[in-house]
Each structure stands twice: as C-alpha cells, then as structure tokens.
Amino acid sequence: MTYLTIPIVAKNPDQARHQIETALLAGAEMLELRVDYIENLTADVVKGLIVEIRTRAAKNVPVIVTCRDKHQGGATDYPAGLRIDTLAAALKAGAEYVDFEYENFLAPENRGKIRSALSQSLKGKLILSTHNFQGKFPQISNLYRHVQTMYVASVPKLVYTANHINDCFEAFDLLHNTGGERIIFCMGQAGLISRIIAKKLGSLVTFASIDEQTATAPGQITIEQFKKLYRYDAITPGTELYGVIGSPVTHSLSPAIHNAGFADIGANKLYLPLLVDGGAPEFSEFMRNVLARPWLGFRGFSITIPHKESAMDYVRGKGGFVEPLARRIGAVNTILITKDGALKAYNTDYAGALDAITTAMEITREQLNGIPVAVLGAGGVARAAVAGLTDVGARVTIYNRTISRAEKLAAEFGCDFAGLDKLAQIDAKLLINCTSIGMHPNVNETPIPKEFLKKDMTVFDTIYNPAETLLLKQAKEAGCQTISGLDMFLNQALVQFKLFTGTDANPDLVRKTVLDCLSRRQLI
C-alpha cells in the first residue's frame, strides 16, 4: 500500500493539533510529524502529539516522526542528542515509523542509540533517509544497497531533485526493480509526476501538503490536488498514463479536463502534466525513456508549445503513422502509443477550429468552400487554422506583422497574404485571430482596431483565457457574430479524448470543468 502522507509542520502543539485535525478531515492516510519545526522541542511534546493523533483519528492512522538535521533540510538546528531522544520517545508512544538521516546513522554513537530505541518498540520501524537537493545521486542503485546493508530492517528513503523530467526515470527504475517498503521520488517541478505515480509504482508513501503554505519540499502538491485533480484514490498498478508534454505546463487545463472525463466513463487512466524543457533532443530523450519502459503504462500525450513540430518529426523518424493533414500543417498535438509500442500522431487543433466555426455559423465544412477568411497571425495556431480552411476550399488571406512569415505560410497552402497596414481593407465573412494579443493578463489589448469590424462578419478569437476577449466584446458591439476560443479548445479536447479512449466525452462536463478552472484562476 502507498500512504498519502501529510506532514505536520507546526511551531507549537496548538498549531499541530489544528493541522492534525485538518489533515485527517482532508483524508490523510498517514501523518508525518515534522517535529523539527516545533519551537522549544521536548520528548514529552512529541509523546503528547502522538496521543492527540490516536485520540482524534477515527481509524488508526500511521505516524512517521521526523526531526530532520538542519543541514539536510530541517527547520531548526537541534543537536543530534535531542533529535534522537525525540525519536526514541516517539517509538515508546507507539509511532509506526521514525525517520533518521542515513548519513548521520553512519556514526556509531547515533546508530547505537537508534538501534536501542528500536529494540524496545514492538512495531516501530526506521526510515533511513537521504536527500540530494542539487540533482541526481551518482549511483542510486548502489546507494540503495548501502542503505539496506547498514540496517536490514530499515525502510530506504531516497529523494533527489529532478532538474529535468528525464532525471525521474532512474527513480522509476529503482521502484520497478525493488520490492518491500521503500520511499523513492523526485523533488522539484520536473519531479512532480514521480509524486503522483508513486502509488502506481508502489512507493510506501507520497507526500501531500494541507495547503500551498505548508509544503515541506519543492514540487509538493496539496492533498486536494492529489484527490480531486489527479484521482489519487483511483490509481492502481494497472492505471494507464497520459499527459500534456510542453514547457510550461503548470497552468494547463488539460489534466482537469481529461481526468474528469476519465472518471466520468470509469476508465482506469490518469492524465499528468509533463514538463519537458528544452527542444527536440530533450523531447526525443523523453520519448525514448517512455518507450523503453512499457511497464510505466504511458498510452498517449497531448503536445503543446514548444514540441508540436518535434513530436511530428519524432513519430515520422520512428516510422509511425502521421495523419495526412497533420503532415501538411507540419505539427501534431496528439500522440498515441499502441500496446505493441507503435506510434500514431494527429493534429486536433484544426478539427477543433473547424468544428467551432461550422457550429457557430450553422453550416457544414463543405459550405466553407469559397468563403473569404482573414487570418491574423502566422504562428502555430494559424498554421492549423489555415491548413484546415484551405483543405475545405475557403479563400484565406493571412495578415501578419512580419510580412515574410505571412508570405511563407501563404505559399505553403496556396492562399493570399498581406501586412497589418492592409487591415482596413479587410473584406471577409470570417475573421480569425490566431495571435496571443488579448490573452490574460493583457486583456485590454486587441489585434485589430474596432472600426475595421463589420456587422456582416463572424469574428473568431482562438484565445480562451479570457473566454470573452476585448476583440469579441468589440465585435459584438459592431453587430458581428462571435466565436470564443473556448469553443475551439473544448472541441480539440473532445476529439483528443476520443483518440485516447475510443469514447465520446460528455461535452457539458468538459465545458463545466474548463469554466470552473478559469473562474478559480480569476479569483486568485
């Protein structure tokens, strides 16, 4: 079993009691008393807190007591003697685990005291912990064996900072190749996924904070995020993994959308934020790591900035299937991994855009043939929109600040181009903003002067945060029909979800999930 463990990081017993009650109500499966945070620490204080937990817990929630060395991440510089005394007191009071640093356990005096305390406990176990706050351990497998050798009955705890997501795979390998009680994961934003899938891989614990203010290590997330966003209670060894690959990915709405959808259809699947910094080499290394470990259970990815082109190149280089229109676009935003390890790549951005347009205008894709369309921008979003529109025969003109970029894109898809100085002469039935102008937080900006908007236009802004941009507000005032980028985002996610599952997602659930996320962010 993997215990979802909440550290208690209070300065005094009263604060600790409040945190303990909050943690238990939130669903903590284990508590870690970080008594190095307590001021004026004594052994009696530790005993009292364990009694408090036993009194408050409706069930027998296990307890780890940790008094961390200041040099290894502790909050207070308590002497080794006091730290060991508190652990001995915790064992006498019935704590299931005490955590002591492997480096300090090497000292014979410390080792003797800890062993003596353990010998007098009926159930207490020792966690021998070692942390690297700078990066990976040089030889993590050797270190693991050394920790085990030093005290055979111990629970090895090896935690290191992942400076890149590719650093996590050594931790995954160690969990996969070992058994019994052990704690292995990575710190930092790049190591976040190791905390979330610790339950799938069988780590004894994974740590969650009560809230963002009480996190005890970089990359630690809240228990609410674990349970609501990442469906912690539903994770099993057989859970299939999906995720969004990009940089940044912290604020992506995709985990909320797909995990809500997975829960709705009862699928044993989990969607993760996968922070892959760097360019094509780092992306390729990540994919190699995933494909070399089929036991991880990765089955698909959403691809976002800056990896859409690298993703297509990688799949093509591996001889995988790439959707024909995605080849024309030159980028993909979805990768599937079949059970035999084959790759398939798609671009759902253009489908999301076309579906948003045809639904709002109440026409079919075929009826877009011959319609004059103005596309603002010449980046990745514009490529997908232009590819889809020209594919159905729309008459597209690309407007961009850098005319050479517009000219290049227009040449690829056989359409017209112009500079921004020609915006006043726009004569289009459909205008699409594919730039980031007007995106949160720059909500008072617009890519086109409002006097250039005409009442017979349909105006589509691909930005979805905010759902109603200044461009759309001004378009409504001008009498235009409007299409929110939220519709495109939802549509591409629905297409992607079906690729992942073979099942249609509930569009009302997806919309509600996105709107709830956007609403919470605006309140922050």
Structure description:
This protein has helices spanning 13-26, 43-56, 80-92, 102-105, 108-119, 140-150, 169-177, 192-196, 198-201, 223-229, 254-265, 280-291, 308-317, 324-329, 349-361, 380-391, 403-413, 470-477, 485-501, 507-523; strands spanning 3-8, 30-34, 63-66, 97-101, 125-132, 155-161, 183-187, 205-207, 240-246, 269-275, 298-303, 321-322, 334-337, 343-346, 372-376, 395-400, 416-419, 430-433, 458-461, 481-483. The chain contains 20 helices and 20 strands. The two termini are 35 Å apart. By secondary structure, it is an alpha/beta fold. The longest helix has 17 residues, at 485-501. It has three domains: 3-236, Aldolase class I (TIM Barrel); 243-346, Leucine Dehydrogenase, chain A, domain 1 (Rossmann fold); 350-483, NAD(P)-binding Rossmann-like Domain (Rossmann fold).
